[in-house]
Design brief:
Largest sheet: 4 strands, parallel
Number of helices: 6
Helix content: 40-55%
Distance between the termini: 35 Å
Strand order of the largest sheet: 3-2-4-5
Strand content: 15-25%
Order of helices and strands: EHEHEHEHEEHEEH
CATH superfamily: Response regulator
Radius of gyration: 18 Å
CATH architecture: 3-Layer(aba) Sandwich
Length: 184
Amino acid sequence: MTCDQTEIGRIHGQQVRSLLGKAGRVLCVTGHMRNVAALRRLEGLKASLNGNFEVVELNADWTSEGARMAVERWTSATTSEKDLPGMFVAHNDEMALGVRQALRDFDSQHNLPLAGAPITGLRRIAHVRPTSRARGASEGHRDHAPASGVAIEWIDRAHAQGQLPPVRVLLPVASFPALPRLQR
């Protein structure tokens, strides 16, 4: 049981396009690139952006602290607002929190309008509550059963009817908030 990782990346790309328009620069904080989920999410993001966006990739470790340190290393070479991306994307909520903290720290040191803007402002973090993010079934979205519920249903079918699940069950994901609500 897993969320469709490529679709999560595509949704992130759709969120970026909804919020920034047709082109721009995006900083994406990824999970370990040895991890299939991170690779597929990045692949989906880039495919969804159709090459119209410059994607700056920063590898982190799926944690808030790892993302904060990766963004701090990246921003240490940034001295002007023109160097900044129009949007920040993180592969999970934990890393998005680290991105937000690094941006707040950067803002306080450089007096550039990053973290001072509201999360829903022009410089957004796409994967942080309560702004946009891709929400998976495993997160208990009201439109989908949690992953554990789906797994228990398959166990019940296997026990009662002898029906085995496919080798891989992809759980649906959706943008939160819905993409039409993100339109400029």
